[in-house]
Design brief:
InterPro entries: SAM-dependent_MTases_sf. A seven-stranded mixed sheet has the order 3-2-1-4-5-7-6, sandwiched between helices. It has seven helices and seven strands. The N terminus is likely disordered. The two termini are about 40 Å apart. With about 270 residues, it is an alpha/beta fold. It is globular and about 55 Å long. Helix 3 crosses helix 5 and helix 6 packs antiparallel against helix 7.
Amino acid sequence: MNRRASRNIGSEAYPSDDKPASIFQHYVGITLDRTQYEFATSRVISSGQDNGERKDFSAQSAKPRPHTSETIQLFCGDAANPSSWPKELQQAVSIAFSQEKSQYSSHAPEPERYVLALDSAYHFQPSRRPIFKYTHSVLHAHFLAFDIFLAPASSSRLRSFVNNFALRVLTPSLSAPFSNFVPPSAYKTQLRDAGYAEEDIAIEDITDDVFPGLARFLERRDQQLAALGLSGFLKWRISGWLFRWLSAGDILRAGIVVAKWKEKGLK
């Protein structure tokens, strides 16, 4: 699993004949996993070649190429700690924002900015708070995420103790700090502390649409490998059991987070 924060800036695309409008103008992607970074980079290159153009994904230049609709930049780094970002990444973010300001008149509304943490924020160490604060106070961006939350406490003290113990045992395998697993109410408090207004924060529970399907996928993959006579893939079976257990929803819940940035003084 990886730590990843992605930024999707703007909604208007550069004019292009016979091509659909781009959904973004600038995209900055960050992952802590070197393998994922290299795979994503190869996909961007391949996509540009398939479309007859080469998208700019390098860390060295953040300027969009003529006649292309977007700038894509990928970095291998720790999205959880903006203060640790290398100079190239900080420069990419700075240039993207300065370009936005130059492209719009003072009377036009600013393009929307997003930070997307897709199945990653619960890995952030030591916590999500630095990226929440940076997203709101520096980027002036909406925060979007798929994240995992602590389920409501059981009415049984014994069951609560067992669930808490099980989660402490589980978190090392998830490469996630135990303190990152909080109920939605505490999650919203962290977003409010970062500057987002209560009325601009929404969390939708999608546990039933995530854990059961993931458990079935992992179990099916284990069966396929066994049918091929392959061994040594016990992790697939264990992962299937794990998510089948989590699908009951007694320990962890899965949800979609939307925190909208709003300029102070606006309602």
